[in-house]
Amino acid sequence: AQSVTQLGSHVSVSEGALVLLRCNYSSSVPPYLFWYVQYPNQGLQLLLKYTTGATLVKGINGFEAEFKKSETSFHLTKPSAHMSDAAEYFCAVSEDFGNEKLTFGTGTRLTIIP
Amino acid sequence: DTGVSQDPRHKITKRGQNVTFRCDPISEHNRLYWYRQTLGQGPEFLTYFQNEAQLEKSRLLSDRFSAERPKGSFSTLEIQRTEQGDSAMYLCASSLLRQGPGGKLFFGSGTQLSVL
């Protein structure tokens, strides 16, 4: 069965510093991988996804993630944090390629320090 | 694109009561999903529809839960004989078939259920 592990339920970074949110997955087949973000009082929205092809995926708001099969990882990064990045971030995996049935991690709450 | 809307935003009920939630997806979206999220956890898949057909239900979903999507538009999720363990945020999401590999889910803000 597929699963996702997000290391660190809370991450704090200074404004302008590198953001690194960790995600490791377990899957019996080459997975599709996703990062979703949830801002306060809003629904989750898709940041980026990896399906096939290029392993470095760029998303919205300057975020990117790299699929590393050998490490079973899909870490999310942003070179320079902005106050508006404060939110909860969820990594998700899918093995069922005919639909959007996802298995989510437990989330990482990102705090930006001014 | 008015987004996915869910009603109510909050529901407080007593154990044993029935509750019903409504989700209105983005109008042209033919797929609709229900997820449940408890404190400190990520969303957990419950069920999904393609148009009016319910194509899959989670094995974890109790028989007390039922979902419908008449006419392939809005959907309702009913919980009968609520239990305290049903307390959670119930999330609805919609998507458009053929959005490319992996698709893209658009989530509503959720209905927070508290069972006393």
In short:
The complex is a heterodimer of chains A (114) and B (116). Chain A is mostly beta strands and 114 residues long.
Explain how this protein is built.
The complex is a heterodimer of chains A (114) and B (116). Chain A is built from no helices and eleven strands. Chain A has strands at residues 3-7, 10-14, 19-26, 32-38, 45-50, 56-58, 64-68, 73-78, 87-94, 103-104, 108-113. In chain A, the strands form two sheets. In chain A, strands 2, 4, 5, 9, 10 and 11 form a six-stranded mixed β-sheet that branches. In chain A, strands 1-3-8-7-6 form a five-stranded antiparallel β-sheet, with no helix packed on it. In chain A, strand 9 (87-94) and strand 10 form a beta hairpin. Chain A starts with a strand and ends with a strand. With 116 residues, chain B is mainly β. Chain B has no helices and eleven strands. In chain B, strands 2, 4, 5, 6, 9, 10 and 11 form a seven-stranded mixed β-sheet that branches. Classes of the chains: A mainly beta (114), B mainly beta (116). At the A-B interface, strand 4, strand 5, strand 9 and strand 10 of A face strand 5, strand 9 and strand 10 of B.
